[in-house]
Amino acid sequence: MDWRRPLSKLAVALVCCICMISPLEPVVTASEGSQESKMVVIQETEAQIKSLCRQGKFAEACPLAERAVQKVRDALDKDDPLFAVAVKRSIWLEAKTGQYSHAVASCQELLAVRKEKLGPKHPDYAESLNDLAGLYAEMGQLDNARPLFEEALLIRKDVLGCKHPEYATTLNNLAGIYAQTGDFAKAESLSLEALAIRKESLGQHHADYLQSLDNLARLYDQMGDKAKAKEMRSQRGKIIAQLPASRVGTSRQ
Question: What pTM value is reported for the model?
C-alpha cells in the first residue's frame, strides 16, 4: 500500500519556513562579534538557503542549514522560536538528502529542548514527537515510530482535544503504521476517526479531508474491499469537481 508517509507533514511545514518566512528584521549597523552582527550573518545565510531551495539544490542547502543551526545556537537561547525554525529546516533538508541519521539527531535535540523548556505536555513537544516518529516511519523503523505517534496522540488529546485537526493528523499517521504492519482493522478505525474529525473541524472541501478519503480508498484496496475503495474515491472526486484548481492544496497528512 502506497500510504502517504508521515514525514510529509513535516516537509510541508518546512517548505513554508524555507520559502516564506523572514524571521529576522534587517540590522543597519553592527560591531564585529556583537549580537547584532551574528543576526546579520544568520540573515545572510537564510537568504542563501532560500535561494538554493527554490532552485531545488537541496544538497547544497543542507550544510548551510546545519551551519545556520549552530549560528542560531551561539547567538540565541534554545527556547527562542528561531532556533526551532532553524532546526526543523535542517531536519527536513537532511531527510530530503537521505541523511537520516543526522535528521534523527537534530530532531532528538529539538525534542529534548522542548521537553526541558516547555514541558512534556506542550503541543510543540507533541509536534516534535510526531516529527521524530515520521522520520522513523520514513526509514522503515515502524517499531520506533509507533510509540512516539501514540505518545503524541495522547498529548494532543489531553491538550488540544479529540476534535482538533492536529489530533486527527496523528491519528492518520498512526493509522499508516498499522496499515503497513497489516493491522487493517486498527488502521481503518483510526482513519475513519480522523476523517470524521477533519470533516467536522475543517470541512469536506479541505485538503486534509480529501487526503483522508484517499488514504481510506488505498487502505480498502489493500484489504481487498473494492466497493468501499470505489466509494471513497467517488466521494473525493465529487468534492474535487466542485473546487477551483487553486483550492486543491497540500494535505498535512
Answer: 0.78
